[in-house]
């Protein structure tokens, strides 16, 4: 009888051991796959602007552009594509700094409404073709925030709302407060996200793979991870509500500054 118990124990240890080895190998394989997808996504993101820049620069250099209007158009494209490249490199560097805890968050007393108004004021024309409305509560309690990273997080949400919408690019931005938290919401009428994918979209490098718009849209899978890191640093949180085909809404919640009496 003792022999049987011993054999059962050995079997159990063996099964647990094999399962442990299997799951760690699977994790490694998944990680390697995610990393290689990230590299291929970034390469794709770099290739398009680079190709445009070099083609336009070469055409200009060879004196093949006759009209000054056309030349201006080419210079503008070179400029905007360089900015796109710059923004992407910034995104990757910022993520890496945040992840290592090396990003310097410079917090100050602010009003979330003002941050949103400034971001929209600066970037509204960048999103031409999208119908962005800002229905916000300006009388918000104050929060402690690093304006630069919060603006960046908000821009990531707006970028996604525009990117993952089809023809109906109607995007609503609202601010408000509840339970000693201030929030900003970005709501779109785009392709939406399934419940299963909602669990992973904040993971680094994660991109939803589906045979539709999300596959055609370029990205690095870092935007929402940056949003997540930023909210952690602000002791806040990010939430998502979404339904495939019906759109998504993301909210950033910040704790209100407690006034001592
Ligand atoms: P990226 O947009 O570069 O792929 P993100 O981290 O910003 O990376 O987003 C991760 C994934 O979440 C995206 O690939 C996309 O599938 C999904 N997603 C994010 N925002 C939205 C949205 N507003 N509507 C639909 N899907 C979204």
TrEMBL record:
Entry keywords, A to Z: Kinase, Membrane, Phosphoprotein, Transferase, Transmembrane, Transmembrane helix, Two-component regulatory system
Catalytic activity of the protein: ATP + protein L-histidine = ADP + protein N-phospho-L-histidine
Species: Xiashengella succiniciproducens
Transmembrane spans: 3-22
Name of this chain's protein: histidine kinase
EC number in record: 2.7.13.3
Keyword Kinase: yes
Every Histidine kinase domain range: 41-258
GO molecular function ontology, one term from the record: phosphorelay sensor kinase activity
